[in-house]
Design a protein that fits this description.
alpha/beta, Rossmann fold, 2 domains
Length: about 210
């Protein structure tokens, strides 16, 4: 049963929170101006939501240098505006009720993550958190997950844990670190274009068996 896990790790964007589409569209418009290339709604959705897995590989397939893209992207993201445009999924509220160690492992960069956590009021949900970088590694690499497990004090202690996220990279990171994986399909299989496997596959945390 899900309620019997000894610790939980969670992804952030697309799992616990999301941002209004108007914000995403405006950011990609400005990034497109910087790069001299327009992004369609579908392309913006694919990159923002990581629908095809590796965002860098997808950018390269479109002939876009990932380093140049992310440099432009982060330059155009306003932390306070993003925080104001971010909302918490109702079904994520159960995380506040978990009476076990809880960690956050996100690709959201720290300068964006911190105001977002404050704006939606969930900073105190987590006993440890990590914003992935080139130094920490990126999911599905287990390194950032293992780093949070060490900070939580649960690494290699024989207890059972789970990682919940909205993408294939989250599931991969969980399995690579020896954890169970919950895939929360927020966008739908048709929009994603593929089906992501996990130990649990749900469209809402409300569907989890034995949810606390």
């Amino acid at each position: 049963m899900v309620s019997e896990y000894d610790y939980w790790l969670l992804d952030l964007d697309g799992t616990l929170i999301d941002v209004e589409w108007s914000y995403t569209r405006e950011v990609f418009d400005r990034v497109g101006d910087r790069l001299g290339r327009e992004f369609t709604d579908q392309e913006a959705d694919i990159i923002w939501s990581g629908l095809t897995g590796s965002r860098d590989r997808q950018l390269e397939a479109w002939g876009i240098d990932p380093h140049e893209f992310w440099e432009a992207f982060h330059a155009e993201e306003d932390p306070m505006v993003r925080a104001e445009q971010t909302y918490l999924h109702d079904d994520a509220a159960f995380v506040a009720e978990l009476d076990v160690p809880v960690g956050l492992v996100t690709h959201c960069q720290e300068f964006l993550c911190e105001p977002v956590l404050d704006n939606v009021g969930i900073r105190d949900w987590f006993d440890a958190r990590l914003c992935c970088t080139e130094e920490t590694g990126w999911k599905p690499d287990p390194a950032p997950v293992e780093s949070v497990l060490r900070e939580l004090g649960v690494a290699h202690n024989g207890h059972e844990g789970v990682l919940a996220g909205d993408g294939a990279n989250d599931v991969g990171a969980a399995w690579n670190a020896g954890l169970d994986a919950i895939h929360v399909e927020r966008v739908g299989h048709e929009r994603r274009g593929q089906c992501v496997l996990g130990d649990y596959r749900v469209e809402s945390f409300d569907e989890l068996p034995g949810r606390p």
